[in-house]
Amino acid sequence: MTNVKCFGETTGAVNLTVTGGTAPYTYLWSNGATTEDLVNVIAGVYTVTISDASLCTTTATGTVTEPAELIATAGSNGPVCEGIELSLTGGPDGMVTYSWTGPDGFISSLQNPVVSSAATQIMSGLYILNITDGNGCTSSASVDVIVNEIPVVTFAQTNIICGGTSTGAIDITVSGGSGPFVYLWTGSVTDTAVEDQVNIPAGSYTVTVTDANSCTSALSSIVITELPSLSGSITSQTNVTVAGGNDGSVTVDGSGGTPPYMYRLDAGPMQASGAFSNLTAGPYTVTVQDANLCEYPVNVIITQPGFPLSGKVTSQTEVLCYGDATGSVTVTGIEGEEPYEYNIDGGAFQPTGTFNLLTAGPHIVTIRDALLNTFNVDVLIAGPSFPLIITITQNDIICAGGNTGSASAIAAGGTEPYSYSWNTTPVQTGPDAIGLIAGTYTVTVTDANGCVTSAEVTITEPEQMAVAILKNDVLCNGDENGSAAASVQGGTGPYTYLWNTTPVRTTPTIDNLAPGTYSVTVTDANGCTATGNVTIGEPAPLTVSATATDALCPDTDEGGIELLINGGVQPYSITWSNPGGSSAQKITGLRPGTYTVVVSDANGCRASTSADVGYEGSYGCLTIPDIITPNGDGHNDEWIIRNIDIYPEAEVLIYTRWGRLVYRTKNISENPWNGQYRNSGDMMPTDSYHYILHLNDGSKPKSGVISVIR
Fold this sequence. Notes:
The protein is mainly β. It has 9 domains: 12-64, no CATH class; 73-148, Immunoglobulin-like; 152-224, Immunoglobulins (Immunoglobulin-like), CATH 2.60.40; 231-302, Immunoglobulin-like; 310-381, Immunoglobulin-like, CATH 2.60.40; 389-459, Immunoglobulin-like (Sandwich); 466-536, Immunoglobulins (Immunoglobulin-like, Sandwich); 543-613, Sandwich (Immunoglobulin-like); and more. The protein is 0% helix and 48% strand. The chain has a 5-stranded mixed sheet with strand order 51-55-54-52-53, with no helix packed on it. It has a 4-stranded antiparallel sheet with strand order 10-9-12-13, with no helix packed on it. The radius of gyration is 57 Å and the shape is elongated. The chain starts with 11 loop residues before the first strand and ends with a strand.
């Protein structure tokens, strides 16, 4: 036995050896062969019956086997972003050769090649794997790889001209990639997810842009600079020497910023000098302004004789949750001249020293007495340093309708420890939620101070896979030229196809199909499957039959033929061999004869038939002359009956008016009467003669008169 080398081939053989019996031998195999040995056969069980010269018989059975069908597989880690290496995976393992080809001349002999972006530009397109096993059998598969363009990020920055202020800005421009885009900033920003940053302090900033395909691009070390901070200080001050006097003075000098400097006392006009005199006791503000119009206030208190004003914090409440305004403080004035007034952080003065609705952080409470002397009390309201936030990562559902989604929440800021609560059914209380179907979920985080925040995550799923099949039915009954093309919506590409054909086919489109029902199973990149069915039909057999109508006579055209056409696919094309060029289904005006027709349907299928148009025959078909002029001039010398040859048994008798028989023949078409007496050469005289015509076809005889004129 020689087994088949590759699945589905006809390379098997059976070598038979016969001993005993009486030669010669005859052979009859189960596949109908009558040779001693079998070659070029498919896999299967073969039985041979051997008969010798004495008609003794014996049988033998052998099995030709074949290996399992070799099916190549191809996959990738695509889609990938520009700059990310492409990993191709091929199978099955253990092949003798692997040969990859792809866009832009890509080739590789590795089973699982990795295309590094550093070595070559990775191209989108179809990557094809051809494999060869140890028997030399081959198979191929392909994977369609998409390489997504990464976003290109540029920026324009606005630096700070007044040092110490938050007036910087960064304007981002994104080109390329696929929107919408997600932004993530680091640095001294209040909102990390906006496109552009405004009102930011000096410092270094980084932005990472992620597009809809998860391709990212980052700009790092965007540095917002600032000019030196403007400042001012009191270089000399003279307090009022006598209560109620106005001999106070102060001199302020600017520094930093951008000289030259201008100065203003309270709401007065700007002046080039920082010296102010003739001041009474009380608080003043000297504003220093530089060349860029940046301003710096210098607080001045001119005192007069008496006990100095002071104050202290008598009670305060901290903020529990970041960003809340739930702190409070009470400050009490000491010494100085009552009554006191209080303000906080430069606000309006009030008669009490209690301030509520305070945010966490440093505050300054200013006490002002009746002499307008002031005293500042520094207050620090404690509270969380960072807001309570939640960062969520998610794993979306692999196959539509599944519950393989999950989400993980990480809390930060606020005050540890944290507790979690997901709005799942049942409620999940850890940082991770699992077993999720598609939908939007909310996680609520509560910190140690009872501060609460929540975040949402939407678990998505691929579109439900659906297989649509376009088909072309068999053109003609009995053909095997049908085809089917499968297309997929939903799921996650790339897809693989498996048709229930023999042998199995793995391409989206299959052809050379016989009529029948076929199914294809499509598997996407996540292993999700969908099945489609299609029935390849065939038209009914194209048949044509003809019904003929005879003509009256051999040389008349009353005949006709009508066709009956069934099956095939309309419209039909009809071609008659004669009369040439006719395309009618019913033709008339035909003389007796054989007519052939070829009918073609819309698919080019053909059927043919022929029909015989005969003639009815009767005396009406005969043309019997009533005069002959047998004078030897070659015109009308003989009595010729037209169409008499259609009656081969016809007999003619001619008599004189007195009943004497002068001519008789049974072959009038070959021996027409020429006016002689029984063809003796003796001419009959001019006269009228009587004839009797017997057709001998069962009809009555016909008689008449013929005149001979000389």
